[in-house]
Specification:
about 250 residues, 11 helices
């Protein structure tokens, strides 16, 4: 598991406590969801903390809609925001890949074991491979479908990860690992892995990567092959399981 500076972690935990008191919510899971979780951060990378929270039960009985996100201003490299449980479950119902990534981050700051285990197990069982596959493929297309022969190293690393995530889903119909290094160990040969690690370890944030890079043609060729594949959509018409997990986490009698 990647390590986090202890003083930074304490600052993050203090801010999570502040959010709970300021907004009257319960944060039951908080984790990294940025380059640090993806294993290609630089020393200057922000800490992208993403959390799930819920209100006390009586707040959900109001006839009025309430905001379902909490965002703190970005300060000192700390980017902290969260989703209400209701929003999270709706996104899982739609097959939102970002929701799965937040639930499977290797860097966890706070975790309520019962609630997180219930939500994580549910997300695993109801994973919609087609939605996630097309999500990653469409993100990769923004780089690989363009005419440009030059991108920043940061953009290229994102693109490699998008391609490998889509490839993982197409081959296994399962949630892909969050870490680019784990993905590369599963799918790249030793020479390609070496080229990737050199890129990660030696890059500058805005360094230009040209189409002559050893991994560029791998990405283009793999993307083109994946674009021809069909990943079967999982029917998501029945909302009952999603309503049930919401009630289970909040301990609402069924």
């Amino acid at each position: 598991m990647p390590s986090i500076n202890s003083s930074i972690k304490l600052e993050i935990l203090d801010l999570l406590d502040f959010i709970e008191k300021e907004y009257g919510v319960i944060i039951f899971h908080a984790a990294e969801n940025g380059s640090r979780a993806w294993d290609f951060s630089t020393p200057d990378s922000d800490y992208d903390v993403r959390f799930f929270y819920h209100h006390p039960l009586d707040k959900y009985l109001s006839p009025f809609e309430r905001k379902e996100t909490i965002e703190l201003p970005i300060t000192d490299g700390l980017d902290i925001s969260g989703w209400d449980l209701k929003k999270c479950i709706r996104l899982l119902y739609r097959g939102n890949a970002s929701a799965y990534e937040r639930l499977h981050s290797p860097i966890i700051y706070r975790n309520h074991e019962r609630k997180f285990h219930a939500l994580g197990s549910f997300a695993h069982d109801h994973f919609n491979p087609a939605s996630a596959f097309h999500h990653y493929l469409s993100l990769a297309r923004k780089t690989l479908g363009a005419d440009s022969i030059e991108v920043s190293s940061k953009t290229f690393l994102h693109t490699i990860r998008f391609v490998l995530c889509a490839k993982h889903i197409q081959e296994s119909n399962t949630i892909p690992p969050v870490s680019l290094k784990v993905l590369s160990e599963q799918q790249l040969d030793s020479n390609s892995q070496k080229a990737l690690y050199i890129l990660i370890n030696n890059r500058q944030e805005e360094e230009a990567i040209f189409s002559s890079h050893p991994l560029w043609h791998f990405c283009v060729d793999t993307f083109q092959l994946l674009a021809e594949k069909i990943v079967k959509e999982k029917p998501q018409l029945n909302t009952t399981p999603y309503e049930n997990i919401f009630r289970h986490i909040l301990k609402i009698p069924g």
